Amino acid sequence: MSRASALPLGDRLASGHGAEARLIAALPPLRLLLNLLARLPLSGRQLVTALPYLWLLLFFLVPFIIVMKISLADQLIAQPPYSSLVEWTEKGYLTIKLNLGNYLFLLGDALYVNAYLRSVEVAFFSALICLVIGYPMAYAMARADPAWRGVLLMLVVLPFWTSFLLRVYAWIGLLNNNGVINNVLISLGLISDPIVMMRTNFAVYVGIVYSYLPFMILPLYSTLEKMDLTLLEAAEDLGCRPFKAFLTITLPLSLPGIVAGFSLVFIPALGEFVIPDLLGGTDTLMIGKVLWDEFFANRAWPIASAVAIAMLSLVLLIMAFQHWLARRAEAGQ
Questions:
Q1: Rounded to the nearest 10 degrees, what angle do helices 101-108 and 110-143 cross at?
Q2: pTM (two decimals)
Q3: Burial 275-311 (b: 16+ CB within 10 A, else e)
Q4: Do the Cβ atoms of 210 and 167 come closer than 8 Å?
Q5: According to the model, what pLDDT value does residue 7 have?
Q6: How many independent structural domains does the chain possess?
Q7: Which of 64, 106, 123, 194 could be stapled to 177 by a disulfide with Cβ–Cβ 3.0 to 4.6 Å?
């Protein structure tokens, strides 16, 4: 190892040695940021911890503050620059103007209320269907021979190797009136006329369940695979039947995986836009579509920002409830 490579990262950045310094020299913003970090009194472990927080600060907190500011602006001002929230009066007093009219407008308009309720309904039942389908699959994977578990796990994540958008478009070819499913049923003589599946709520549920089912299976598999099987053996020795042992031992111990999987399906499905837009009908109005229309069709950025902040607040409440349920499940309550 050369003398330059033996230097700490901060010294290499400051002295210009190493491949890191040559890469950073070609990227002025990155060079400026890392030069600043190199001068901070941080150890290597603290620096590694600080970088994710810096990422969240730049790409989550700062955009959130900007959207929050726009949501509190005057709804009559549809394009930037928006009115300032903090102003100084002529007498030198600091005034803060918080316009809550955009949020009150959401509560007073049935369109937005129905879109939120519809989104919660679709996300909840989609997560429930994923749980009903995913639990037996995860259970079978966890109880399979260890030599086959890797193969089964790869089959679960295999759809992620294909673009999400292409997989949704593939369902259009399957569910159309002249699609594969209807053609097969007609050729078998099971139906005489095509079944209308596209542009329906059924198609939306199919698309969401298919797309997010792996997010339910993986946490369940991780929980069930770590379960101590001697507990089931002890229950069997004490005369407990298999189904009762499942209800009293396996199901309670898998609650953390159920809660995690339910959240991983429910939260992204709540704001889903692509699947309802491509597979759903005109009556499938979810909040993701409303948000898109307000931003890009109506150009009502204050209203759209209020919709986004309200949806994010709902997600945070659900995540807090999920965290509370997970803690109770871990505590055996």
A1: 80
A2: 0.79
A3: bbebbbeeebbbbbbbbeebbeeeebbbbbbbbbbbb
A4: yes
A5: 46
A6: 2
A7: 194
Distance CA 87, CA 93 (A): 8
Task: Give yes or no: residues 154 and 271 share one domain.
Answer: yes
**DSSP class per residue in 149-188:** HHHHHHHHHGGGGS-HHHHHHHHHHHHSTTSHHHHHHHHT
Instruction: With beta carbons less than 8 A apart as the criterion, state whether 135 and 220 touch.
Output: yes
183 lies in some domain: yes
Return the pLDDT at 333.
52
What count of residues does the chain have? 333
Tokens of 126: 């989609």
Token representation of residue 206: 């199919």
pLDDT reported for residue 1: 47
153: domain range? Answer: 102-330
206 belongs to a structural domain: yes
Task: Specify the DSSP element, H or E, that contains 127.
Answer: helix 110-143
For the chain, 333 residues long, the average pLDDT of each consecutive 10-residue run is 46 49 50 62 68 83 86 68 66 73 86 91 95 95 91 91 91 92 92 91 94 95 90 85 89 89 92 91 85 85 89 86 76 61
Do 20 and 153 fall within a single domain? no
Contact 182, 194 (CB under 8 A): yes
- Per the CB < 8 A criterion, the answer to whether 10 and 38 are in contact is yes
Residue 88 lies in a domain: no
Residue 90 lies in a domain: no
